[in-house]
Write a structure and sequence with these properties.
The chain is of the alpha/beta class and 248 residues long. It is 38% helix and 20% strand. It has a 5-stranded parallel β-sheet with strand order 2-1-3-4-5, with helices on both faces. Strand 7 and strand 8 (160-163) form a beta hairpin. Helix 2 runs parallel beside helix 3 (66-75). The relative contact order is 0.10.
Length: 248
């Protein structure tokens, strides 16, 4: 049975979510603010922190908002899947949610079947992420979810980047952006194409969120992120993934 943490201060919504999630076979816990959620998920120690398989996190909360809570969880190394709920559904808010570490974003009001489907999707990703990753030297050329280049391995199923003996965990959105760039290897990819094809956002919004994502991916892939070799900037356009860059 999957354990779901609901962080929602509107009691009627929280009760409805708990009832329907439990009817769908999950164990649901409700808290009304971000501070309570952080105490449960992080705890004072690993012994006091509680394990959840997914979090449904409202953005508009008393005290800390959902964006802040998600960012604090990720900064603490807590990668539990997060579904954000909010009445703020502008493109800028969607991107901010993804940038702070959310794995999915659902605007209010929402249809219950859609929410349940989104939760199941997060739980499937959680299961993939908990599978024992293969040894780096194991041949998996037939597995389209593993991509190797220049001594680096991207395992999209496990949502990991491996460089030597270092393993970098990816959020879902980091993973999807990296997958998109790899799919279009050696081609310039515009920021507007990334917004549309990766995040499903077509509005004209500030694209600094994309730039911040790319900065993080460079830290995972490049030995010297300040002079990136693999994720190159195409001035006036966007970015290009180069799996075999020429040596200077």
């Amino acid at each position: 049975m999957s354990r779901i943490l609901i962080v929602e201060d509107e009691q009627h919504i929280a009760n409805g979510l708990r009832f329907n999630l439990e009817a769908d076979g999950h164990d649901a816990t409700v808290v009304g603010d971000a501070e309570s959620a952080l105490r449960l998920l992080l705890g004072a120690s690993s012994e006091t922190a509680q394990a959840f398989d997914a979090v449904i996190l409202d953005v508009m909360l008393p005290g800390k908002d959902g964006f802040t809570a998600a960012a604090e969880l990720r900064a603490a190394g807590q990668f539990v899947p997060i579904l954000m709920l909010t009445a703020r559904n502008s493109a800028a808010d969607v991107l901010r949610g993804f940038e702070t570490g959310a794995d999915d974003y659902l605007p209010k009001p929402f249809d219950l079947p859609i929410l349940l489907a989104r939760v199941k999707g997060l739980l499937r990703r959680r299961q993939w992420n908990e599978q024992e990753p293969p040894a780096p030297e194991t041949a998996r050329s037939a597995d389209a979810d593993v991509y190797r280049f220049d001594g680096r391995t991207i395992d999209f199923s496990a949502m990991e980047v491996r460089v030597g003996d270092k393993v970098h965990r990816l959020t879902v959105m980091e993973c999807e952006l990296l997958r998109y760039l790899v799919k279009h290897a050696a081609q310039p990819v515009s920021r507007s194409a990334i917004l549309q094809d990766v995040w499903g956002v077509s509005d004209a919004v500030d694209t600094r969120a994309i730039d911040n994502f790319v900065v993080r991916l460079r830290r995972y892939l490049d030995d010297q992120p300040g002079t990136p070799r693999f994720l190159q900037t195409v001035r006036g356009v966007g970015y290009r993934f180069v799996p075999s860059p020429k040596l200077p």
